[in-house]
Amino acid sequence: xxxxxxxxxxxxxxxxxxxxxxxxxxxxxxxxxxxxxxxxxxxxxxxxxxxxxxxxxxxxxxxxxxxxxxxxxxxxxxxxxxxxxxxxxxxxxxxxxxxxxxxxxx
Length: 106
What we know:
Layout: E1 7-14, H1 17-29, E2 35-48, E3 51-65, H2 69-79, E4 88-92, H3 97-104
């Protein structure tokens, strides 16, 4: 069960490190996330418009208060260069109490 006092992890892919960093900085500046981890060099294979795509991307792992998810998702969609960006929210049922409190203070 999700509560307003819980943490969300949000996965987002981006085309490159510069784009991912720009999105992360904006989300941090706007107080929508506590932190972002950028993982470059991910190889993504998927079908898009009937064609097999094989691309290098950056995975963003964002940590945010669950209560900010709706606004966070809207902002990611507004900032992102992709037509259909990946924005996946993962619920965090448990975590280190001090870390959870830090994320919730974002």
